[in-house]
Amino acid sequence: MSARNKPELLAPAGSMESLKAAVNNGCDAVYLGGKLFSARQFAGNFSLEELEEACNYCHLRGVKVYVTVNTLYKDEELKAFIAFIGKLYKMGVDALILQDSGAAKLVRETYPDFPLHASTQMTANSLEDVRYWESLGFSKIVLSRELSLDEIEEITSQSQSEIETFVHGALCVCYSGQCIMSSVLGGRSGNRGRCAQTCRLPYTLYKGQDKLQEGYLLSPKDIQTVSILPQLIEAGIASLKIEGRMKNPEYVAGVTGIYRKYIDLYFDDPEHYEVSLEDMKTLTQLFNRGGFSQGYYTSAGGKDMMSVERPKTWGLKIGFVDSYIPKYNRVTIRTREPLVPGDGIEIWTSQGPHVGTSISKASKAGEVISLTLEGDIEKNDVVYRTYGKSLNDTLRKTWEKDNRKKSIWGLLKAKKDQPLALQLWDMGGNSVYVTGDAVEGAENQPTSPEKMKQQIEKMGTTSFVLESLDLEADDDVYVSISALNQLRRNGVEALEEGILKKSKRPDFGDSETRDEEKKPYILHKKLHALVADFMQLEAIVRTKDLKVIYYEASAEMERNLDTAIGLCRRFGISLYAALPKVSRQWRKDIDNAMIERLKEKDIDGFLVRSAGQFGMVKDSGKKITVDYTLNVINGEGVAFWKQQGANEVCLSVEANLKEINTMGDSSCEMVVYGYLPLMKTQQCPIGNYVGGKEGHFYCSERDNTELYFLRDRKGLKFPLMTDCESCVCTILNSKPLFTLKFYDEILESVTGSVRLDFTKEGPGRAARITKAYAEMTQDPKKISTETRNLLEEMKEKGNTKGHFFRGVE
Q1: Integer-rounded Cα radius of gyration of the chain
Q2: Does 353 lie in the same domain as 267?
Q3: d(CA 641, CA 724)
Q4: Distance between CA atoms of 322 and 330, rounded to whole angstroms?
Q5: 603 with 745, same domain?
Q6: Residue 1: what pLDDT?
Q7: Is there a domain that residue 553 lies in?
Q8: For residue 353, is the peptide bond before it cis, meaning its omega torsion is within 30 degrees of 0?
Q9: Residue (of 601, 599, 549) closest to 578 by Cα position
Q10: Category of 258 on φ-ψ map: left (φ > 0), alpha (ψ -120 to 50) or beta
Q11: The pLDDT of residue 118
Q12: What is the mean pLDDT of each run of 10 residues along the chain (809 residues)?
């Protein structure tokens, strides 16, 4: 038996039916969302009444309830948000799963004893990230999906909070919390629970004019870790999380039941741990995208983790086409799995769309079956079962009648001339004592002890199972069956009330949010610029009125840092080190050592991209700007980071001007130019489809300077920007954010500074853009000839206004 504690099995619930499926198949906790404030707005979700019903149902069965409020909240939503939290607090929700640092601040101030879990949307990639959030009271941290088993074990062994990871289900291709692809392309923000899943669309990879690969290049397979559960448990993971709040109840039931089975199996008999082929088939049948991967637990990425052919569920392979007669639309199939009436099958044809039908006649594995089906079908086409009726029927039976019971114990007293009495208790400290009428002596035949126990032990449809009942009874007493039944009902009702009462919380807390204050517009803003390399820095450093340069921290930056410091001092510009966009545990020795060296350098400050980085430089004595990667989209978020010690906060690029003016102030910064990074991914398309990256870091294209880009079905081109030191790829927007055409409206805002983000621009172009913005930042009405030419040029090449006017849903 493992020396580790048995981890929590955490199951998804997108509906009451799914919740019951999860509970009756052995989960320890469920996570679910309300109809408002949830990161899965397209799941069924729960009304307030349903949330309370869910809490009561789970708590009576010893199951915890976590509510997902892990989305970003606009200022106008915070009052309703904290009122919603107050209702969750009272009804006894066990914990909140949060992403928004401002919302977390508000909850902590209003309901200080409400347990908080840090969502995977907080992008916790390192021990430093975990320690920072746990220092602020988060009792559980959900790590990014990209971490390996070695990284996780290192984190769990050195942190106080519980660590939670995803063990089954859909895998985002982007680091969670760092994707704006859906919002930029469609106005639906994944950070606000409205992801349009643009990553599941087809793309083509190009190198210059050469087409290299096409398909669903950004669509990962689902993960399955039941085969490596022992390693996950030994890594110290406290909570094993199944993805799937948008999946059906049958999926929830099947996956939960299998993971429950194998967690228990490992703790009962670790030496004989083995996953059966039938259970793997069940998982495959329920949902898969071209099979499964074990995620990043055992791999650093690669095309083997991707479902290039199709982004939707495939089903279970059940045979091959033996022959097809087009004249009669007659297909014969060699099967290798049994089929029953009601099964759905699909034949994968070489030319889409694939064709499918339902089965009307049962057959055994190995039989050849004949069907009428029209399509471009050929011999040896693969056949999948996309719907398994027998499996689904079996799974539905697991929750149609509640089989999850809470163990209780009892003592029945039947003493002559004393009240009939029953005590019931559980192992959670709940105990009740109920009495009935006085017990009478038996005039004829006394009630036997066996009969009394038999009646009390009938728990029926209640949420309890009576493990044992002690009896203290006189020999010659009579107790009616109706009296015993009533006593049992009263005892059960009292125990239920006691358990639920204990799970509730008193109504307290001031749920008032701060009133919106009118803030002055700051027309004369400071101009900042972020550069990717020294050539860009050297090109823009002489720009009049440029105040701050953020320099991307890397080996290249450190080689040129002393020269860069000298140049910035010469021209009166503050120089900040922009810390890595992704700080991973496997690079801690490299990145942390670099940060320590930078703290000793004569730079002016840091641009931090993660909570852990903030913690590392907080006491450095240098200024700190919190980047928009920390997703600040409300005034509480601004206040939170300022309380932590930030000097400046770069606001979310998903906010519009109205929202910026509500949340921001003179200490805030907004990005007004740049090819916005749509996502950061460890599944680098270059490495996956050109560089031979197969489960390891780095590829044969490492540090290649050729132009690679993805092209979508509409012809838009998305440049790929690689950070080969960290083995991370950034997919840039096809068009740059360019705001000079309406710059007067940008300047009429409350923020104290504006920022230009340079990525793939050459030094000459970076200099032209910086000069134009510097001129118009000082006086938007005076437009030089050079700036007019730039405006015309940008109009011809195409650009975007970003979210300044439309915002996001």
Answers
A1: 31
A2: no
A3: 30
A4: 11
A5: yes
A6: 47
A7: yes
A8: yes
A9: 549
A10: alpha
A11: 98
A12: 83 97 98 77 78 97 96 95 96 97 97 97 97 97 98 97 98 96 91 92 96 97 98 98 96 98 97 97 97 97 96 96 94 97 96 91 96 94 97 97 94 96 96 95 91 95 95 94 96 96 84 69 94 98 97 97 98 98 93 97 98 98 98 97 98 96 97 97 97 93 93 96 95 97 94 97 97 95 93 94 89
For residue 324, what are the β-bridge partners? 331
Helices (H) and strands (E) counted in the chain, each on its own, are: 23, 37
C-alpha to C-alpha distances, 642 to 8, 124, 619, 669, nearest whole angstrom = 36, 20, 14, 13
Q: Give the domain-ending residue among 503, 536, 562.
A: 503
- Domain boundaries, position 730: 175-217+676-735
Q: Where are the beta strands (DSSP E) in 639-786?
A: 648-650, 668-674, 677-681, 708-712, 717-723, 728-732, 737-738, 753-757
Residues 204 and 214 sit within 8 Å (Cβ to Cβ): yes
> How far apart are alpha carbons 456 and 424 in whole angstroms?
11
Domain annotation covers residue 510: no
Residues 426 and 453 in one domain: yes
Tell whether 151 and 52 lie within a shared domain: yes
Q: Is residue 585 part of a domain?
A: yes
* Report field, pTM of the whole predicted structure over 0.90: yes
> Do both 272 and 373 map to the same domain?
no
Q: What's the domain count of the chain?
A: 5
Q: Are 432 and 424 in contact (CB under 8 A)?
A: yes
CB 381 within 8 A of CB 320: yes
What is the dihedral sign for C-alpha 775, 780, 786, 787?
positive
Q: What count of other Cβ atoms lies within 10 Å of the Cβ of residue 517?
A: 8
Q: Which secondary-structure segment (H or E) carries 50?
A: helix 48-59
- What is 189-219 written as a DSSP string? -GGGT----GGGS-EEEEETTEEEEEE-TT-
CB-based contact 802:741 (threshold 8 Å): no
> How many Cβ atoms from other residues are within 10 Å of residue 342's Cβ?
15
Residues 6+ apart with CB under 8 A from 697: 300, 586, 727
**Helix/strand/coil for 269:** coil
Planar angle of CA 728, 729, 730, nearest 5 degrees: 125
Percent helix, percent strand, percent coil in the chain, to nearest 5 = 35, 25, 40
State the Cα–Cα distance between residues 660 and 808, nearest whole angstrom.
13
Rounded to a whole number, what is the distance in angstroms from the first to the last CA of the chain?
A: 49
For residue 280, tell me if it sits in a domain. yes
**Do both 211 and 160 map to the same domain?**
no
d(CA 802, CA 310): 31
Among residues 644, 653, 648, 572, the alpha carbon closest in space to that of 607 is found at 648
3-state secondary structure of 339: strand
**Residue where the block lists tokens 């998305």:** 718
Same-domain pairing of 637 and 743: yes
Q: Are residues 331 and 474 in the same domain?
A: no
Let me know how long the chain is. Answer: 809
Kind and range of the H or E element at 371?
strand 368-372
* 296 Cβ contact list (under 8 Å, min separation 6): 145, 146, 147, 148, 682
